[in-house]
């Protein structure tokens, strides 16, 4: 998700326990959840000191997704110096994670065309491989982001028979090590909870 920073958000001080859609995990210091209150602050921010850096159309979609509980979004606030807010978005999908070797190869061959159609730009995968997410099947992709000098890492993890979670991190190349550490901590600390919940910070 492409978002330019505005300086609206404060920084979390410690590792944060989070949960979203049946997945519990932690994020390092500096990562924080995007809330409805912060989105409203962005919408109301019109001064020269805090320019509204998210396009109105994207802001409206974000507000709808976050307010309705359809998506959880987390920002790496120390990356504000790049002019781009590195972020992780999590939302459920009915797509199934391929598990056999043949199925993984087939999906990895098909994904560049499918993603290119969805995003209306040429997508070439730098990575497409199976991974384990808290004991559940997962698929990890990597490709160049839509914003200048950004990269995307996507992980799809099978939550149950009907639902998987799509975890998408978009980060600026100047902060890749810092933000990759956040995604790695999310994945290594992840555990599935019995009752899927809306995004929250315990």
TrEMBL record:
Protein known as: DUF1795 domain-containing protein
Species, as recorded: Terasakiispira papahanaumokuakeensis
């Amino acid at each position: 998700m492409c978002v330019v920073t505005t300086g609206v958000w404060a920084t979390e001080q410690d590792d944060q326990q989070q949960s979203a859609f049946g997945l519990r995990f932690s994020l390092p210091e500096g990562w924080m959840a995007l809330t409805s209150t912060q989105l409203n602050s962005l919408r109301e921010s019109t001064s020269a000191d805090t320019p509204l850096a998210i396009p109105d159309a994207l802001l409206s979609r974000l507000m709808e997704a976050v307010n309705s509980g359809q998506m959880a979004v987390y920002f790496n606030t120390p990356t504000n110096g790049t002019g781009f807010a590195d972020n992780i978005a999590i939302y459920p999908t009915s797509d199934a994670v391929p598990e056999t070797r043949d199925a993984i190869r087939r999906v990895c061959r098909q994904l560049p065309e499918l993603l290119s159609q969805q995003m209306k730009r040429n997508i070439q995968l730098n990575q497409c491989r199976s991974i384990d997410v808290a004991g559940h099947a997962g698929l990890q992709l990597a490709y160049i982001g839509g914003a200048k000098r950004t990269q995307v890492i996507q992980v799809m993890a099978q939550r149950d028979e009907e639902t998987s979670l799509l975890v998408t991190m978009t980060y600026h190349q100047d902060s890749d090590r810092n933000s990759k550490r956040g995604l790695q901590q999310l994945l290594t600390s992840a555990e599935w909870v019995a009752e899927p919940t809306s995004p929250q910070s315990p």
